[in-house]
């Protein structure tokens, strides 16, 4: 028996299997990165959408003159809860990188501060409302830019 042929055949098979495994591993990494990017894109758009929608609904509630203070307070809490912003924030805190997590949390805190303006005696004439709303809008724009940078970096 010629050992050279046997060793050559074994070495060829080993190289073939190794090359196939490396190709499969590379394909798996690409697919995994693609799935991660898609999951982040979905989460980021849901979270940002929930915050923007909540801000606009709170603004509409603030402008409503037909409601009592107590009704506005109750509805402001319902608006915040209906948008699932709390749940999405915790998903963000799990999936997002640390710098983005901080920006997402800051935006949520500014949303809470805007919601807390309904505790004022008359939110329709609250002189702090425009500044709180503008701070939230700015935080949301900062968050959007940070999210876009993170998705592009994948």
Give a description of the structure.
With 154 residues, the chain is mostly helical. 84% of the residues lie in helices and 0% in strands. The chain is built from 5 helices and no strands. It has helices at 3-63, 69-82, 85-95, 98-116, 129-153. The longest helix has 61 residues, at 3-63. The chain is rod-shaped and about 100 Å long. The protein starts with a helix and ends with a helix. 21% of the residues are buried. The mean pLDDT is 91.
Please name the defining characteristics of this protein.
single chain, 154 residues, mainly alpha, 5 helices, 84% helix, rod-shaped
Secondary-structure topology with pairs:
Layout: H1 3-63, H2 69-82, H3 85-95, H4 98-116, H5 129-153
Helix pairs in contact: 1-2, 1-3, 1-4, 1-5, 3-4, 4-5
Shape category: rod-shaped
Q: How many β-strands, per DSSP?
A: 0
Which strand-content bin applies to the residues? under 5%
Determine Rg (CA atoms, Å): 26 Å
What is the average per-residue confidence, as pLDDT, rounded to a whole number?
91
The DSSP helix count reads: 5
Which structural class do you get from the secondary structure elements?
A: mainly alpha
Largest sheet entry: none
What's the end-to-end separation, in Å?
54 Å
Order of helices and strands: HHHHH
Helix fraction, binned, reads over 70%
Low-confidence stretches: none
């Amino acid at each position: 028996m010629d050992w050279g042929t046997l060793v050559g055949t074994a070495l060829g098979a080993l190289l073939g299997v190794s090359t196939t495994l490396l190709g499969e591993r590379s394909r798996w990494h690409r697919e995994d990165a693609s799935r991660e990017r898609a999951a982040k894109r979905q989460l980021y758009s849901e979270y940002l959408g929930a915050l923007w929608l909540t801000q606009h609904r709170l603004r509409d509630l603030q402008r409503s003159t037909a409601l009592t203070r107590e009704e506005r307070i109750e509805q402001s809490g319902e608006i915040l809860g209906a948008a699932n912003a709390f749940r999405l924030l915790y998903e963000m805190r799990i999936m997002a990188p640390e710098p983005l997590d901080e920006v997402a949390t800051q935006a949520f805190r500014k949303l809470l501060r805007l919601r807390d303006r309904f505790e004022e005696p008359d939110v329709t004439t609250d002189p702090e409302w425009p500044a709180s709303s503008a701070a939230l809008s700015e935080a949301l724009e900062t968050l959007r830019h940070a999210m876009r940078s993170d998705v592009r970096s994948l």
